[in-house]
Amino acid sequence: MLKKILTGAAVAALAVTLGACSSTRPADGGDAGGSAECNVGIAMPTRSLERWINDGEQLQKKLADAGCTVDLQYADNKTDQQISQIQNQISGGAKILVIAAIDGSTLGPVLQEAKAQNATVIAYDRLINGSENVDYYATFDNYKVGTLQGQFIEEQLGLADGAGPFNLEPFAGSPDDNNAKFFFAGAWDVLQPYVEKGQLVVPSGKAPANDDAWASIGIQGWASDKAQAEMDNRLSSFYGDGKKVNVVLSPNDSLAIGIEASLKSAGYTAGADYPIITGQDADKANVKAILEGLQAMTVWKDTRALGDRVFTMIEEIRNGEEVEVNDTETYDNGKKVVPSYLLTPEVVVKDDVQSKLIDSGFLKASDVGL
């Protein structure tokens, strides 16, 4: 099992573009002294994925309701823009920074600025690499995410019982996202032995030799259109003469949407012969796809729980208390092992949508056509 990921430090040029931001003052109109005790900058990567919008806005509301000053920013998946936004948060007096990094290896210089101001840095869902100035990391067990995807494929195909061969097409996430390696490693550690045995065959040849080669099949920016184009190429190049895809390892829902669009264009329809497709995030469009038989599962990470955990961390910091963590071994960023709090993800299939996603309030029935 993958336990430690070591990454090299990188130096980024500082840029000047400041993206759109949302600022919130204390809900009770607290004085400047009260605001200074809890001045939080939240740096999210993009508005193009609904989960980041939900994560940022939910955390912002909880902090504002607790009397904090909050500066929430989204960086359009542009690293220089995110660096500029964080610099402005530091200049604005932020004492706690919550950062979901676009590129986890480029923030070293700006975090040095944060440390000079005695700001505490919490890496949010994505590890920040190459800097000793990362105080805490809050995330889900990302290796477990991949393990759940791999085990789902194993069980659905009966691989442990010797079934096969089946045609597999594996995908990996964005090469600049530290989490993507964990996702792939978790799944590939389950599936690669079946590739080696011949029970899983990869007609495209895009089967990494080991976990460390995952970036060779990574989709930059987790972009749905790029995943669709890649799947189009694989289908047209390697699946002639009636050969069919049986299973696609997709690490998240945004890639799955592109893959499903490609399959539809190639004439695949829901039914017994439709490929097994994995996912992650329980995005509305993908939950609809699950209900329609166009996606087999998604790994649900209840991001409300992640926001709650980060809020608790901020309250502990604010009150001068010890910050609770549950992992002090796994996440080595190349400069230090970052104290982390890991939450547990879970699988959602068609029969779980109502009980897990709707009844919990994570989604509305109307969001997914129920």
Q: What attributes characterize this protein structure?
A:
370 residues; alpha/beta; seven-stranded mixed β-sheet; four-stranded parallel β-sheet; 13 strands; 37% helix; 14% strand
Explain how this protein is built.
With 370 residues, the chain is of the alpha/beta class. Helix 2 (50-65) runs parallel beside helix 10 (303-318), helix 5 (142-157) packs parallel to helix 6 and helix 7 crosses helix 8. It starts with 20 loop residues before the first strand and ends in a 12-residue tail after the last helix. The protein contains eleven helices and 13 strands. The strands form three sheets. Strands 1-3-2-4-5-6-12 form a seven-stranded mixed sheet, sandwiched between helices. Helix 6 (178-197) links the parallel strand 7 (166-170) and strand 8 (200-201). The radius of gyration is 21 Å and the shape is globular.
Secondary-structure topology with pairs:
Elements: E1 21-24, H1 32-37, E2 39-44, H2 50-65, E3 69-74, H3 79-91, E4 96-99, H4 108-116, E5 120-124, E6 136-140, H5 142-157, E7 166-170, H6 178-197, E8 200-201, H7 224-238, E9 247-249, H8 253-265, E10 276-277, H9 284-291, E11 298-300, H10 303-318, E12 340-343, E13 346-348, H11 353-358
Parallel strand pairs: 2-3, 2-4, 4-5, 5-6, 6-12, 7-8, 7-9, 9-10
Antiparallel strand pairs: 1-3, 11-13
Helix pairs in contact: 2-10, 5-6, 7-8
At a glance:
This protein is α/β, with parallel strands linked by helices.
Oligomer description: single chain
The total of beta strands comes to 13
Average pLDDT for all residues: 90
Give the helices and strands as they follow along the chain. Answer: EHEHEHEHEEHEHEHEHEHEHEEH
Number of helices: 11
Shape: globular
Q: How many angstroms does the end-to-end distance come to?
A: 39 Å
Major sheet: size, sense and barrel closure? 7 strands, mixed
**Low-pLDDT stretches:** 1-36
Radius of gyration: 21 Å
What proportion strand?
5-15%
Helix content: 25-40%
Secondary-structure content class: alpha/beta
Biggest β-sheet: strands ordered side by side in the sheet: 1-3-2-4-5-6-12
